[in-house]
């Protein structure tokens, strides 16, 4: 369990966790073993990772509380008494696609989403499809910093601003949060400067540069 998965665990809040794209099954094993939830579903689209999750579950003697399911996203998962769904370690577009195909999501389910790329694409999709980002925490894993989002299927009461899309609701009150905001700012500055020097889209370039200034000094 690295700090990325620990942050996902921290944002779960109920008794029945479903981990989509579980790979080795580290997250559900950790959560059940630590008593952070009562039972869990470890799900993956591919048999290889699922077998490795099953081996891990058996090694830890948790097969009475963790069910392994072969499933593309949530396609083979029933709502049942699910309290939390974690989708971590995938791109923002794939996470959006998985959520868009599920018809039984409701307000009572806590979604914990951790995009490896395209967090802005995921935030836009969430906004346009009636999902509210309740909180975001930054975490560092290896050489990179990521955001973990806690989300509910409730219409957002905030506007879909460029600031929301690019920085989300990550706060600058932790070292990880400051690093996330700083790195996003640097990326926006790079894209804005590139556009400006290429003379292709000056309005967008100015917008991105202005946005980058919000967190350039974190
Ligand atoms: C990079 S691993 C992430 C593992 C773990 N969730 C984490 O964050 O460390 C991505 C896993 O997602 C699985 N995966 C990819 N697409 C999926 C889908 N549509 N539905 C379920 N699992 C998927 C892959 O097979 C792989 O095991």
Please compute the radius of gyration using only Cα atoms: 18 Å
Bound molecules: S-adenosylmethionine
The CATH class of the largest domain turns out to be Alpha Beta
In CATH, the homologous superfamily of the largest domain goes by the name: Vaccinia Virus protein VP39
Would you kindly provide a written description of the structure presented here, covering whatever features stand out?
A 7-stranded mixed beta sheet has the order 3-2-1-4-5-7-6, sandwiched between helices. The chain folds into 2 domains: about 5-165, 3-Layer(aba) Sandwich (Rossmann fold), CATH 3.40.50; about 170-218, no CATH class. About 40% of the residues are buried. It has about 220 residues and is α/β, with parallel strands linked by helices. The radius of gyration is 18 Å and the shape is elongated. The mean pLDDT is about 95. The chain contains 8 helices and 7 strands. Helices cover about 40% and strands about 20% of the residues. The protein has helices spanning about 5-10, 25-35, 45-60, 90-100, 120-130, 160-165, 175-200, 200-215; strands at about 15-20, 40-45, 65-70, 85-90, 110-115, 130-140, 145-150. The two termini are about 30 Å apart.
């Amino acid at each position: 369990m690295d700090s990325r998965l620990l942050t996902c665990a921290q944002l779960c809040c109920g008794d029945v966790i479903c981990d989509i794209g579980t790979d080795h099954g580290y997250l559900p094993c950790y959560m059940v073993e630590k008593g952070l939830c009562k039972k869990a579903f470890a799900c993956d689209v591919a048999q290889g990772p699922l077998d490795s999750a099953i081996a891990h579950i058996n090694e830890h003697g948790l097969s009475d509380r963790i069910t392994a399911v072969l499933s593309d996203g949530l396609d083979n998962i029933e709502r049942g008494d699910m309290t939390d769904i974690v989708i971590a370690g995938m791109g923002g577009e794939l996470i959006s696609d998985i959520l868009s195909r599920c018809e039984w999501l409701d307000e009572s389910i806590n979604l914990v989403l951790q995009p490896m790329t395209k967090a802005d694409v995921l935030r836009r999709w969430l906004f346009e499809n009636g999902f509210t980002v309740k909180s975001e925490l930054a975490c560092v894993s290896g050489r990179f910093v990521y955001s973990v989002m806690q989300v509910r299927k409730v219409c957002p009461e905030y506007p879909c601003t460029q600031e929301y899309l690019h920085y989300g609701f990550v706060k600058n009150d932790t070292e990880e949060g400051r690093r996330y905001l700083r790195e996003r700012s640097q990326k926006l500055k790079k894209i804005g400067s590139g556009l400006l020097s290429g003379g292709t889209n000056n309005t967008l370039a100015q917008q991105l540069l202005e946005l980058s200034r919000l967190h350039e000094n974190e």
